[in-house]
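Example record

The entry below shows one chain as it appears in the dataset: sequence first, then structure tokens.
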Amino acid sequence: MDRALQRTKILTDHLFQSSPSSPAQTPSLSSNACLNYSPPELSENYAFDIKHMRKLIDGHNVEERDWLFGLMRQSKLFNPKVRGGKVFVSPDYNQSMEQQREMTMKRIEYLLERGVFRGWLTEIGEEVQMRKFACFEVLSIYDHSIATKLGVHFFLWGGAIQFFGTKHHHDKWLRDTENFSIKCSFAMTELGHGSNVRGVETVTTYDSNTGEFVINTPCETAQKYWIGGAANHATHTIVFSQLNINGTNQGVHAFIAQIRDANGNICPNIRIADCGHKIGLNGVDNGRIWFDNFRVPRENLLNSVADVSPDGKYLSSIKDPDQRFAAFMAPLTVGRVNIAVSAVYQSKVGLAVAIRYALTRRAFSLKPNEPEILLLDYPSHQRRLLPLLAKIYAMSFAANYLKMLYVKRTPQSNKTIHIVSSSFKATFTWNNMQILQECREACGGQGLKTENRVGHLKGEYDVQSTFEGDNNILMQQVSKALLAEYVAAQKRNKAFKGLGLEHMNKPCPIIPSQLTSTTLRCSQFQMDALCLRERDLLNLFVADVSQYQAKGESTERAFIMSYQLAEDLGRAFSDRAIFQTFVEAEATLAAGSLKDVLGMLRSLYALICLEDAAFLRYGYLSVGNAATVRREITKICSELRPHALALVSSFGIPDTFLSPIAFNWIDANSWSSVEH
């Protein structure tokens, strides 16, 4: 307080140009020496092997990732710029929407010529699928538009041909898709229907006289909307439509349609309009499509699940419409897998920039004429950023688990993949937005500059919360699936099996009345606490739904009315499932510094999960124990502080793909750096 009064007195004297009453009483203001940039590597030590850590969190194809990073660094197409003595690459977001779209295609052509997409659709096996995931993650670090454009072309269109189609579709379309002889889109979403795919209004009938399907947009809400590639580049699309055969609606089916000729002209009986400028992702040409009695050959029905004979008979081995629709939707989980994983890598970019900046940027000193303090040496700054580091490591292990679950999928595992991918996609993309916002603020005004990436990434990746399934709806699907598992286990009078719910078969864990530091850092306690929340919320959710049903409400209505418990349950499932992958990854390591640091991160992740309001709301933690958890988080953050640089360096993101404030931000903003 005395120092504050002194400073107020000095400022008052200065403003009113009055002399200090006594030089002995009021110290004079002296100018500080100019700040200098000092690379954090000079003062920060690595206590573990960062290459080993990178292999652990990337999980696979490290060499291919570095090769692709190198390809992008070599070409002027990726917009290299020198700032502060270093070269950085990122898209030029000052370009017009049209220019950004053309640059996206030019970059794709450059990568195509260098064999990046080799085997993505024409080879099979785990190796090529994991290589495809790795390349996709690297491309998403550079630009969301290029990743989205490729995701639509390869994973959505290409995946639909692979999984909805049969051999003649594979032979006709896959190689041309891989070579970009055709440019492809995926027309599922409509103006009136997004998450509710089953309700799409586009209608297709069959003309047995010509052997053709006839596709129509019967109303304005049936126009295909947000179709990536449709506005400018796509020559083909897959249309999701209701199939009406002889007056009977057989539900949603998928049809191949050519929407442009080889010269880029829109085909007859099709209308296309641009979706316009967006808050991000302007390198993708999203469009809207209307069909007016548009005809496609009978062979263009993707018929692995159902077919129509030449004379117009509907054929399917799956008689139940619900099961048939589920079979159609099952392969599309790859979109959610990709989105979930790319969200993790954007979080890595944001946090690597914010932590590196916090290791070189100073603010305020504790005593006059002392050096100002590094941002990351403030406990408050540690509390802001280091829990996010734990969250990113947890998501990294969970993302690797999700990819392997998808790659090793079987018909029996489709349900598990759907639930886990829905849960992780929602959680990771929400986390990404939270992480990028905190990093933006932690970088102060520098976080607003587009060249520093963090702030701009928020606009680019905001869409992930709603495309490939609105996050809130995906989490409701998770809770609904858990409810179904519970009911099925009760009916069969058998133990829970799958989805990690085996803990429901064990005695209910008990949280000690008084928590200690040792207990809070015990992985078994952490797992018990997360399992306790999940099992109790599942029991409460089942009871709540049953109560509404007892009052005469339908199952669907009862579920809707219990939405708050459903939200809490979905989060509980996700946190426990993610934590489980962290524990499993940690268990693969021998004792040593790497395992010690991961143990701290694992404890930090578990404890920030315990800060969720549900632990107080439902009485799993007392107020006193919640305060103990909070103090322990602060303590772990302090212990992780010396490892901060090593932990973000382990992300393996080349300097070129970060931003100027992650390095010499003084030189990057010097007068000599200005283009005169």
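Notes for this example: DSSP finds 22 helices and 15 strands in the chain. Residues 52 and 650 are 8 Å apart (CA to CA).
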